Amino acid sequence: MPLALLALAVVAFGIGTTEFATMGLLPQIADGVDVSVPHAGNLVSAYALGVVVGAPVLTGIGARVPHKRLLLLLSGLFVVGNIASALAPNFGLLFAARFLAGLPHGALFGVGAVVASRLVAPERAARAVSKMFLGLTVANIVGVPAGTALGQHLGWRSAYWAVAVIGVLALVALALFVPYQPRGTQSGIRHELRAMGNKQVVIGLATAVVGFGGFFAVYSYLVPMLTNVTGISDTSTTLVLALYGVGMTLGTLIAGPLTDRALRPTLYAGMALLAAALVTFYFAVHSTVPALITITFIGAMGSLITTPVQMLLMAKAEDAPTMAAASNHSAFNLANAGGAWLGGLAISAGWGWTSPNLVGAALAVAGLGLAFTGGLMDRGTRRSEVVTSSRPEFAKQTDQEVSPAP
User: Fold this and answer.
1) What is the pLDDT confidence band of residue 188, given thresholds at 50, 70 and 90?
2) Where are the transmembrane segments (predicted)?
3) What is d(CA 124, CA 287) in angstroms, rounded to the nearest whole number?
4) Domains by residue range for the chain, with CATH
5) Which of 1, 91, 205, 233 has a CA between 20 and 30 Å from the CA of residue 128?
6) Which tens digit of pLDDT belongs to each residue from 54-76?
């Protein structure tokens, strides 16, 4: 089972590397396909659009496909998308290739989270999912800087070739180490769509869009904040972003055990602490050391929220968790777009480079309010069950029953 989780983490590492390395190579890509840097920035949007579209669509198409086979098919599509990116002769085809590479992103994470949760006993399900997510956070520390450096020295196409190789390695590891997990007798697109209609699933996705919008409102403008306000040089920002990744990794490491122990309290605390950290950064950004400490904490709190949101959606979707788990990553990308847009509006309004911190804090508080709303709806009721294993003895995990108030 550790090898199976490692295989899933390698998939997440490849996804994280290809998603963020493009941002660091925009000048090289712009020169290579003869467009301006702002125009090349649309490639980031193309990938995000692929994630938003692909998560529900590919999960729905594969609703009856056994999870291991679906993981292999999605990983194959991921490899094809990155090879197409490396070979694209012009901007139009590169745009289409980045959209193609983004299509399996959400479905891979969603299916992978369900598979990971079923590899272990129910009380360790969140820890298993968080181990898969470690691949994404480590990508921010190692994969993205390495991919950026490779692309700068050997040409931007080499970065996509490297990601394609990672994808092939992940494909082999999945084939060797992930056990077969049959689908239930009620599996199918209609079954998954009915689960998506659950009010708690809708609130959970809204919590992800709004709450994580606060995280991305700041992350999107972190580099100009550091250079224009903190006074950090352009050459040092890559190291600072790696420090951000260290915080994300630490948050992921503690998220699993905390979520297994108390899911909703972990979500509440993460949202509240994220809001507090963003307000703190509004003031701390003017001094280097306090700014770096706060950045690490923001990264940790952003990742701390990821696992409980994922597990909550899987729980509330009951025995059809795959599409809900995949749609969570569509929600993340909508949060990325929305948070960046609102943060940009604040800067354009003349509120200063630090204003996205207050916008982000407000979004985190709103996300906390949505999370509390979902919690209040659960009071006095038997909580949903989450399928955590294909083995009969671990068929379902049930949260403790909350007794109604006398």
Assistant:
1) low
2) 42-63, 70-97, 103-121, 133-154, 160-180, 201-223, 235-255, 267-285, 291-313, 334-353, 359-377
3) 41
4) 2-387 (1.20.1250.20)
5) 205
6) 888 898 888 788 889 999 999 99
